[in-house]
Amino acid sequence: MEVTTGIPVTYDVQAVRKQFPILSREVKGHPLIYLDNAATTQKPQAVVDSLLHYYTYYNANIHRGIHTLAEEATAAYEATRDAVKAFINAAVREEIIFTRGTTESINLVAYTWGMANVKAGDEIIVSGMEHHSNTVPWQLVCERNGARLRVIPVNEQGELDMEVFHSLLSEKTKLVSLVHVSNALGTINPVSEVIAAAHKAGALVMLDGAQSTVHMDIDVQALDCDFFACSSHKVYGPTGVGVLYGKKALLEAMPVFQGGGEMIREVTFEKTTYNELPYKFEAGTPNIADTIAFKAAIDYVTELGRARIRRHEDDLLQYATGLISDLDGVQIIGQAKEKTSVLSFIVKNAHPQDLGILLDNKGIAVRTGHHCAQPLMDRFCIPGTVRASFALYNTREEVDQLAKALKKAISLLS
Amino acid sequence: MSNEKSIRETELEIIDEFALFDSWDDKYEYIIDLGKKLPPLAAVHKTDDNKVRGCQSTVWLAASYRDGRVYFEADSDAVIVKGLISMLIRVLSGRTPDEILEAPLDFIKEIGMTTHLAQTRSNGLLSMVKQMKNYALAFKIKTP
Predict the structure, then answer these.
(1) Do residue A368 and residue B28 have CB atoms under 8 angstroms apart?
(2) In the 8-state DSSP scheme, what is residue A187?
(3) Which of A1, A68, A363, A399 would bridge A320 by S-S if both were Cys, CB 3.0 to 4.6 A apart?
(4) pTM score
(5) Which pairing describes strands A204-208 and A227-231: parallel, antiparallel, or unpaired?
(6) pLDDT digits (tens, 9 = 90+) for A285-296
(7) For the stretch A322-335, what's the b/e string if a residue is b when 16 or more beta carbons lie within 10 angstroms of its beta carbon?
(8) Are B62 and B45 in contact (CB under 8 A)?
(9) How far apart are CA A312 and CA A316, in angstroms?
(10) Per DSSP, what are the bridge partners of residue A385?
(11) Which residues of chain A neighbour B80 with C-beta distances below 8 Å?
């Protein structure tokens, strides 16, 4: 099979694999083939080492201690903020808020900016390919404030119907909250066009970057999005750490989210004044260790280069798409022109769950089900798909194994 | 038809059958075969009320009560789940409510299903067992 995007000679996938200790384990007597990367990625040794080093050498609570450990921990925690700022090219470090994950980042905007600014009769636009995390918070805002949720439909290829999107925009539109890359299909949405059109209509734009940040260079200033959310654990970092980027003026004007320590300046029972950005939105002791280790992941990905990683992943996607779509009864769900390395498919007369169990029996980890995108599955009239998602450490040999195991599973089930 | 063998005797039969297989491939092939052979559930029973929660696939479970015994029929859109249901029906259908309620169902563990199926899927299997026991309890309470 011909591949148009060759792996650069400098990309040594075997050397990359050596950095990920988990990849040498076995599952059910077979070498692990991990293809559930859109759910969470595995962690390089540098991330594991960073966690271990923190807990064995300088564990302390941050920001207020004056002792050495507290100073070291604070410096490391804030160094991650600087690394994230550079990673997504925010203008200033105050625009980077740490959360528990993308879901909490979206909820933060919904419960602060959304509840304060979305009024009765206003409209919020999402798309038909959102993760539930970028639908439910806005439904809650709409229900409470009497606003209306509008949905950009998805076409047969798994792309947004942009004509309808433009027709949905009006002076009533307060916000467009859109997934940058679909978790279920891999579709890369035309966010620049969306942002320009939404701003022209006077609406803000929030991007759910949970799936995009790991595959593409992100430049929030060039994108000109108003909010951007992503998660550490999908970028080879630890779980439990998320990022909310917001334009500084917006973040400053927004009401606070949770109250507690860290986010205050002065507290009396009569009146409390709040801390400045970014601490205003970071109540309580944060997830210090995982946030610090997130920097090791960012450094790792930056050193390899997201453009080079993407070429490798695109090669795997093309190779896998060719092999898998040749199998009996397979239908690929999501054939957008612009895709990240997600291969979602269904097989005639075989339930995704059965396929997932039989692949797992061969040590192959894929995701099956609705991928927290039930409206999207309804759009395609299917209960769910099998999703193989490829990362920087996957190989063509693993794709071969997937195709082989899948072929056997299909013959068993049919 | 009531079941002449005890629950434990039926479980031991299944355990013996599984002991014949050397590999998990063979065990799955057998479970898939059981699933394919399970008679389909009549459309009237495929209602939302009969759906079992906790499964990634859709499972319908219907029960009837005759002469002091509970009879189960079930179906699923996933064939491995159907195979597992088929075994549960073989063990539990045609029993008295008390027999069903007291059954520890150790065979699931003994044929390696709880350890082999991931937690999420095991929960689906456990939901089915729980639903079968709920039916038994309901019939027991309804008929003094």
Answers:
(1) no
(2) B
(3) A399
(4) 0.92
(5) parallel
(6) 999 999 999 999
(7) ebbeeeeebebbbb
(8) yes
(9) 6
(10) A369
(11) 353-354, 357-358
Does A412 touch chain B if contact means CB atoms closer than 8 Å?
Answer: yes
Pairing outcome for strands A204-208 and A264-267? unpaired
In the predicted structure, residue B119 carries a pLDDT above the cut 60:
no
Per-residue model confidence as pLDDT tens digits over A88-103: 999 999 999 999 999 9
Residue ranges and CATH numbers for the domains of chain A are: 13-44+306-413 (3.90.1150.10), 49-302 (3.40.640.10)
Interchain pair B28, A357: CB under 8 A: yes
What pLDDT does residue A2 have? Answer: 39
Instruction: pLDDT band for B3, please (50, 70, 90 cuts).
Output: low
Domains of chain B with bracketed CATH: 7-142 (3.90.1010.10)
Alpha-helix residue ranges (DSSP H) falling in chain B = 7-19, 24-37, 79-92, 97-102, 107-110, 113-116, 119-142
Which amino acid, A367? R
pLDDT of residue B117: 52
Q: How many residues does chain A have?
A: 414
- What is the least distance, in Å, from the CA of B41 to any CA of chain A? 18
